Amino acid sequence: MRSPPIPEMATQEVQLSETLAHLKTESDTLKGKLEEERAKLHDVELHQVAEKVEGLGQFVMKTRRTLKGHGNKVLCMDWCKDKRRIVSSSQDGKVIVWDAFTTNKEHAVTMPCTWVMACAYAPSGCAVACGGLDNKCSVYPLSLDKNENLAAKKKSVAMHTNYLSACSFTNSDMQILTSSGDGTCALWDVESGQLLQSFHGHAADVLCLDLAPSETGNTFVSGGCDKKANVWDMRSGQCIQSFETHESDINSVRYYPSGDAFASGSDDATCRLYDLRADREVAIYSKESIIFGVSSVDFSLSGRLLFGGYNDYTINVWDVLKGTRVSILFGHENRVSTLRVSPDGTAFCTGSWDHTLRTWA
Amino acid sequence: MSSKMQSSGSIAQARRTVQQLRLEASIERIKVSKASSDLMRYCGEHAKNDPLLMGIPASENPFKDKKPCTVL
């Protein structure tokens, strides 16, 4: 049992707890002020403004190609800028590069770990990055020689203290942005493996990230198990905006093509749209009948359509402006885990726990 | 860890939270009506170039072809 504190220490402890209480009060006051400021500008709903926009007709989209070859759940995929190649990664530990037109496999790498949760294509098309339970992000240059052992050329770039959940090259092959189960995001120099900037602010695992379109400047958005979506300044490491309206983990975030907004998909079975200049959520995409989580979201080229891959094996297509669902797509035989629209917007690709990828148009 | 150290650790954390909130509270915002009409305008301007929205004919979409195109 602790001996009673001497009077001097007791006073100091009281002073510290008073400061703590004072800071807590200030924190609560600021949160209240933030809500007030945001509410003042909430003069109308997006779908109300969009009433005058013409409705969308029937959409006929179906599976155009099925890519088979992974031996276990597909966890992530990314498009090459050439609009036809795709990289995918799986729980089976393999990373495969496909020609999505012909469905041919062009490269395959076996990682030293299972659960390769993240993969990304380099802007040049000459390399891919991937990682997962190994807590790292590694870059593999793609060789024209099919017989060359890609694993030998592997370069370890990022080191986290927990799993890698997402990775993305910035606008060149020289830098990679990563997010991790360790609660942080980080920016790395590919050549030296040096940490250029780290981003602290999430209170739990960070599950996803997306870079702002290059015209909008150096920011990115991340989503996590703390139900928050944070917008970051890449140069300073500062969190500049934070949104906390989801009721569960945020599995996917994607910028609207103009860079003025972003969409998110969550385990709470909703997708949401946040406008950065209004600094608030402006739309929720949900239905009572949709009760399974959203794993991944992406916009069509104009931003009018939002595609969501769901844990109930379906893809729901939403009218971004009106907030209504325009189509539901079936085909996968297990959870849709990843979804990306092609760079020229002619198709989108999904990856699933059913071991396959599908392209849809 | 003495309770004094715990308190000062929490204080540092609380100070960071207050700093962050001050920053977030001070940004400039626009009305939702303005933000919405900007989003709508962007959609409208880019709609005709959105293949998934417009639906381009099968002959022009390499994914819709039954036989892949080959350059001879």
From TrEMBL, chain A:
Keywords: Repeat, Transducer, WD repeat. One of its GO terms (biological process) is signal transduction. WD repeats lie at residues 67-108, 157-198, 199-242, 243-284, 294-328, 329-361. Coiled coil: none annotated. The keyword Repeat applies. It holds the Pfam family WD40_Gbeta. The keyword Protein biosynthesis does not apply. SMART domains: WD40. May interact with RGS9; this interaction stabilizes both proteins and increases RGS9 GTPase-activating protein (GAP) activity, hence accelerating the deactivation of D(2) dopamine receptor-mediated signaling. This is GNB5 FLJ37457 FLJ43714 GB5. It comes from Scophthalmus maximus.
TrEMBL record, chain B:
GO terms for cellular component: heterotrimeric G-protein complex. The keyword Ribosomal protein does not apply. It comes from the Eukaryota. InterPro entries: G-protein_gamma, G-protein_gamma-like_dom, GGL_sf. One of its GO terms (molecular function) is G-protein beta-subunit binding. Keywords: Cell membrane, Lipoprotein, Membrane, Methylation, Prenylation, Transducer. It is a lipid-anchor. One of its GO terms (biological process) is G protein-coupled receptor signaling pathway. The keyword Secreted does not apply. It is found in: Cell membrane. Belongs to the G protein gamma family. Guanine nucleotide-binding proteins (G proteins) are involved as a modulator or transducer in various transmembrane signaling systems. The beta and gamma chains are required for the GTPase activity, for replacement of GDP by GTP, and for G protein-effector interaction. G proteins are composed of 3 units; alpha, beta and gamma. This is Guanine nucleotide-binding protein subunit gamma. It comes from Scophthalmus maximus (Turbot).
